[in-house]
Specification:
Elements: H1 30-43, H2 47-50, H3 59-81, E1 93-94, E2 100-101, H4 117-133, H5 150-171, H6 173-178, H7 182-198, H8 204-207, H9 211-219
Antiparallel strand pairs: 1-2
Helix pairs in contact: 1-3, 3-5, 3-7, 4-5
Protein name: MOB1A kinase
Keywords: Kinase, Metal-binding, Transferase, Zinc
GO molecular function, one term: kinase activity
């Protein structure tokens, strides 16, 4: 199976506190079947193929299931390095010296604020969790239609989740190496990138902080 199989290494050791509660897709639901399909195709090792919309499936639903899955993966990855990502180590939310992010969600915080990386990521993951838990945006019940603005919401979520990968790669890769998690991080990120490329979900400019890595990941697969 997929990344989950690589995860016994986390059990009970260092950070037993996961960063945010895991978002579960209800068993027996169609979305659960889709998630199982995604995991099975990932197992085949061909990520370009694994991200494609399965025949006869609804694009919104496929994007919803994968967005929840990426949220859970990033949550777990960031959870392993939270002790290294602190107010003092990361006073701003950055992805290398050229990229700095300021937080705004348009509702509670309208004007972008400068804050530390742990604070930014906490805002970000809490905001994503709220979107995922909103039944009008991410309906979990069969036959409940996705809203008209679903695609733009999903794009914003994925754009923001990308920033967590970018921060981990730029500021904490040494910790990831020490924890021997780079293969797990790379696989998760590659899956994420192939997915957003398949459906053009993130603007190229937004991907700039990891441009070289993305090129490298892509060239191995052509």
């Amino acid at each position: 199976g997929k990344l989950q199989m690589l995860l016994p290494f986390l059990s009970g050791s260092r950070s037993s506190k996961t960063f945010k509660p895991k978002k579960n897709i209800p068993e027996g639901s169609h979305q659960y079947e889709l998630l199982k399909h995604a995991e099975a195709t990932l197992g085949s090792g061909n990520l370009r193929q694994a991200v494609m919309l399965p025949e006869g499936e609804d694009l919104n639903e496929w994007i919803a299931v994968n967005t929840v899955d990426f949220f859970n993966q990033i949550n777990m990855l960031y959870g392993t390095i939270t002790e290294f990502c602190t107010e003092s180590s990361c006073p701003v939310m950055s992805a290398g010296p050229r990229y700095e992010y300021h937080w705004a969600d348009g509702t509670n915080i309208k004007k972008p604020i400068k804050c530390s990386a742990p604070k930014y990521i906490d805002y970000l993951m809490t905001w994503v969790q709220d979107q995922l838990d909103d039944e009008t945006l991410f309906p979990s019940k069969i036959g409940v239609p996705f809203p008209k603005n679903f695609m733009s919401v999903a794009k914003t979520i994925l754009k923001r989740l990308f920033r967590v990968y970018a921060h981990i790669y730029h500021q904490h890769f040494d910790s990831v190496m020490r924890l021997q998690e780079e293969a797990h991080l790379n696989t998760s990120f590659k899956h994420f990138i192939f997915f957003v490329q398949e459906f053009s979900l993130i603007d190229r400019r937004e991907l700039a902080p990891l441009h070289e890595l993305i090129e490298k990941l892509g060239s191995k697969d052509r």
